[in-house]
Amino acid sequence: MYADPVEEARRQAQICNSCRYCEGYCAVFPSMHIHRSFSEGDITQLANLCHNCQNCYDACQYTAPHEFALNLPGVLAEVRQESWEQTAFPAAMGKAFHRNGTLIALFSALGMGLLFWAARRLPGGGEGFYAVLAHNAMVAIFLPAFLFPLLALAIGLKRYWKRVDGMPVRLGDITAAFGSAATMRNLAGGHGDGCTYEDDDRFSHKRRVLHQLVMYGFLLCFAATASGTILHYAFAMPAPYGLFSIPKALGLPGGIMLCIGTAGMMWLKAEGRPHLQDLRVRGGEFGFILLLFIVSFTGLALYLFRDTAGLEALLAIHLGSVLAFFLLTPYSKMAHGFYRLAALVRDAQRRRSTS
């Protein structure tokens, strides 16, 4: 830990600017090298561009025991974390989750699960899951829980954009950012060999693949939910849906990808080198990954055991974990996806203005 992460990151960035050995490794270094000095906003932008692949650390000749003692991934992880906490709405929630995330995630999922357990068999009726919990009850509970995180994230991103001196956004900036995020380009390494995240002597695409499994698995699950909503309201086709329906065709592979990706990320996070991460927030990181794993695992379990006596308990656990996931999104590691995307948009603006 550094007493002043921003000031320490500024010191290290100035040394990196003199060396430039890592110029082609990721988006951080081209963005760094356009500056002669670094404002707090510049450092915040660099920190959120950094994907903590750690290649630069392993290539650097100025790491400890050298007197410069560079550890750019480690110090940027601390700056990045502080930027999320300071721009979160409300800020106290961001700090609380990242310090005690695992406990907050588990107790939130348990509390929400008890809420759904208490709400089962309310009047309303229906088939499948709706026979346990009425559709109107689900809407009444989930709609506010979906809208509040969007509002909180919008406020946080607005604060972040102001901090990094973001310019008016063009369509090309957005498409460039999404293209980078879709391919996880900044986890590919400067020569496309991958990261040295888990072993400083070996490059690997494992972390990149696991991130893609989580991202695309989540998007498929979200698309499954959205398609079910459209079928319900636009075509008067309520659940349950068959195996070959659109929601199942999207949700099943999405759930499997999420399960594999989150389990792999928990293992990889445990294997990672602690001094290159921000150890203060490991509870929050593991809490988020664990919560997302519970969401995907219980969703698949519901499909497998939907005709058993365990349906009600499984449904309460699944819906409780989903509700906790949404409510905690602005403060969990899930928010980093939105901040990283904003950083990539800002980087696209940088490239456009300097081309």
UniProtKB/TrEMBL annotation:
The chain crosses the membrane at residues 101-119, 139-157, 213-235, 250-268, 288-305, 311-331. This is Tricarballylate utilization 4Fe-4S protein TcuB. Keywords: Membrane, Transmembrane, Transmembrane helix. It comes from the Bacteria.
